[in-house]
């Protein structure tokens, strides 16, 4: 994001924005639960209701927990430098567990449905694969003690960009899933503005709102974690090295 | 985006990334044209083919031109300060014209289909309404001579954030539209991996790739437009004013 010459929001506002994001996130989870419970017959680990675990768990894991993992950077910025990475480190693990707990592939097999043909499933598998790569690289660069400070500093902006990209891709995949489920289950009634369609459409808009508020918090300059003293020093050294042709070129 | 302590990409790389984004954007437009031409019977301003103008024009206007309008900020950063806003200023106008040229509502009326019931249409109308508001506010703050410099500086970060948000929302809406069209036109054959389904799914993934490359260019610190001297001076004055309780509090 472009830097702002003036800083109009005080750090105290962060709490309000985080509160709004949490209300939106919990509303979205509740609405997904109501949709599955009220209109799709509920959830179960066996029978045809096994499929209904998928939308609920994916919204909890890949949207709400992933978003909150990133917000952890802002909420815990007053703590030590070592504590925040644990949140994004743990969150994908949780989401990953949730992902494998749900049994959409098993449900497809039982019902004789083919796998992986729709745009929703292509986006979903791309999001999940890239998420796993991001988690693995994040673990290697930030938690593994062997990575040098310079290497971490070079990788950090990529990690942050792909973190934001994966949250957006996860929300997009969720929206595609809502659309797919609606057109498979209530295609003929959808255009009559039936309550299920309105509930699912509203759920989609609230998912976008959750993404927007989370993205707004993460991109505000005012709420950035201030760089550590050694990061600043290294940045200056690196700048000196790269702006000249070589350390001796300015002599 | 979080600031990077090291700057690993030289400004010269910007050209390569912009080239990749343009190749992706033009590929996406071509694929949308091929989809409509090869599998949906082509486009026309009358008859039932009128509907097919919608996907093609929306991808050109709301995705490609909108993305390129934002990239104009990076590509023309070497020029005068007044030239770049014309690009984002013109682009929504073009997209707006394209939007109203397409006749999806008229097509619905002719065919007797109801309007505005699906998640795709809800997201689309939200994106377009907010886009128009963004364009109007951008015009008032940046092109209208009455807005003060301080007011512009305060609004600028919001304009940039909502610009990025609207591009993402437009791409998401396009993906929902692809999903909806596929499930309305080839629902029974979709799971057999027919060429039309694969083409449309690939188009969806390339739309995401276009958004990712554009977003990457826009969020890299290295490629930001350097702030003007008066912006820097105002920023310092504003900081002095806001950090103390009042100008006299530090005395």
UniProtKB/TrEMBL annotation, chains A, B:
The cross-references to Pfam families, in alphabetical order and at most eight, read:
Cytochrom_B561
Major location (coarse)? membrane
What top-level branch of life does the organism fall under?
Eukaryota
Q: Which reaction does it catalyse?
A: monodehydro-L-ascorbate radical(out) + L-ascorbate(in) = monodehydro-L-ascorbate radical(in) + L-ascorbate(out)
PROSITE patterns named among the record's database cross-references? CYTOCHROME_B561
A GO molecular function for this record?
Answer: metal ion binding
One Gene Ontology cellular component term attached to this UniProt record is: chromaffin granule membrane
Domain Cytochrome b561: from-to ranges: 20-219
Q: Which cofactor does it need?
A: heme b
Q: Which UniProt keywords apply?
A: Cytoplasmic vesicle, Electron transport, Heme, Iron, Membrane, Metal-binding, Translocase, Transmembrane, Transmembrane helix, Transport
In terms of InterPro entries, this protein maps to: CYB561/CYBRD1-like (IPR043205), Cyt_b561/ferric_Rdtase_TM (IPR006593)
Localization, UniProt: Cytoplasmic vesicle, Secretory vesicle, Chromaffin granule membrane
Which stretches are transmembrane? Answer: 12-36, 42-65, 125-151, 160-186, 198-218
Topology with respect to the bilayer: Multi-pass membrane protein
What functional role does this protein have?
Transmembrane reductase that uses ascorbate as an electron donor in the cytoplasm and transfers electrons across membranes to reduce monodehydro-L-ascorbate radical in the lumen of secretory vesicles. It is therefore involved the regeneration and homeostasis within secretory vesicles of ascorbate which in turn provides reducing equivalents needed to support the activity of intravesicular enzymes.
Listed name of the protein: Transmembrane ascorbate-dependent reductase CYB561
| Species assigned in the record | Sphenodon punctatus (Tuatara)
What's the source species' lineage? Answer: Eukaryota, Metazoa, Chordata, Craniata, Vertebrata
Q: Gene that codes for this?
A: CYB561
